[in-house]
Design brief:
- It is built from 7 helices and 10 strands.
- 33% of the residues lie in helices and 29% in strands.
- It has a single domain, classed as P-loop containing nucleotide triphosphate hydrolases (Rossmann fold).
- It is globular, with a radius of gyration of 18 Å.
- By secondary structure, it is of the alpha/beta class.
- A 6-stranded mixed beta sheet has the order 6-7-8-3-9-10. It has a 4-stranded antiparallel beta sheet with strand order 2-1-4-5, with helices on one face.
Length: 238
C-alpha cells in the first residue's frame, strides 16, 4: 500500500522566553492508505503537537512531513490552508458546527471554500449525510440534534471533500458510552470502505477500534503496534 502520511525525524521546539521546550523529539512513522490509526499518550506526551502537524495547522522545526506525496514543510500559509481543505477532513471533540446553520449547510462548508457551485455542493453534502445515517435531518439545526447526531454531521463535513485522511481529535470526548460506541461503529464502517483515519484518544476502549495504536511519551514514540481490530463496530446506525 502507498503511504498517505510519512513523517521522518520530526522535531518541534517551542520557545518560551529564554527557555526551549522540545515537544517532539525526532518521531518517524508512515500511515498507509486505508489504515485506521489511534494515537495515544498522556497530556504533554506530544500527541496533540503531532496532530497539529499532521493537520497542517503547525509546521515542524525540522524533519520531513509528506501528505499524499506533497511536502508540507515548504508551504506558505495559503498553500497549507488549501491542502487542509482538499486533503484532510477534521472531526473534533466539540463538533465545531455553526449553531445558526442547518446541518446540510454545515456539511457543505468545505465545498464553499473549495469553490464548488451550489448545486454540486448540495449533491455531495446529501450523499455525505446519507453515508453517516442522517438522511432526513438535512434542515435540522445543531440544537435540534443529539450529541451523536451532531458528531455525525461533523463526520459528514469531514467526508464531503473526499479527503486523503480524516483526522479525529478525541471524537467521543463529549459523548456518553452508548453514543460513543455508535460513533466508533461509524468510523469502523467508513474505514472498511477504504477511508484512512487517524484518531487521537486517551481512552483505551475507543483506541481498540483502530487497527494500529501509536503511543507517545515525553515527545517520543514508545510503541507502534498493529492489531487485529478487536472491536466490531458494525454498520452505521440511522
Amino acid at each position: 500500500m502507498n503511504s498517505v502520511i510519512s513523517l521522518t525525524d520530526i522535531r518541534r521546539v517551542f520557545s518560551m522566553g529564554d527557555q526551549q521546550f522540545e515537544a517532539l523529539k525526532g518521531i518517524s512513522f508512515d500511515v498507509a492508505a486505508g489504515e485506521f490509526v489511534a494515537i495515544m499518550g498522556a497530556s504533554g506526551s506530544g500527541k496533540s503537537t503531532c496532530m497539529n502537524i499532521l493537520g497542517c495547522l503547525d509546521l515542524p522545526t525540522s524533519g520531513c512531513y509528506l501528505l499524499d506525496g506533497l511536502d508540507a514543510g515548504g508551504m506558505t500559509a495559503n498553500q497549507l490552508a488549501d491542502i487542509r481543505n482538499k486533503k484532510l477532513g477534521f472531526v473534533f471533540q466539540g463538533f465545531n458546527l455553526l449553531a445558526r446553520t442547518p446541518a446540510i449547510e454545515n456539511v457543505e462548508l468545505p465545498l464553499v471554500y473549495a469553490g464548488f457551485h451550489a448545486k454540486e455542493r448540495r449533491v455531495k453534502a446529501l450523499s455525505a449525510m446519507e453515508q453517516v445515517g442522517l438522511s432526513g435531518k438535512e434542515n435540522n439545526h445543531p440544537s435540534q440534534l443529539s450529541g451523536g447526531q451532531q458528531q455525525r454531521v461533523a463526520i459528514a463535513r469531514a467526508l464531503v471533500n473526499n479527503p486523503a485522511v480524516i483526522l479525529a481529535d478525541e471524537p467521543t470526548g463529549n459523548l456518553d458510552s452508548s453514543t460513543s460506541e455508535e460513533i466508533m461503529g461509524l468510523f469502523t464502517a467508513l474505514n472498511r470502505q477504504g477511508i484512512t483515519i487517524i484518531m487521537v484518544t486517551h481512552e483505551h476502549d475507543v483506541a481498540a477500534y483502530a487497527g494500529r495504536q501509536i503511543t507517545f511519551k515525553d515527545g517520543k514514540i514508545i510503541s507502534d503496534t498493529k492489531l487485529a481490530q478487536s472491536v466490531d463496530g458494525g454498520e452505521p446506525m440511522s
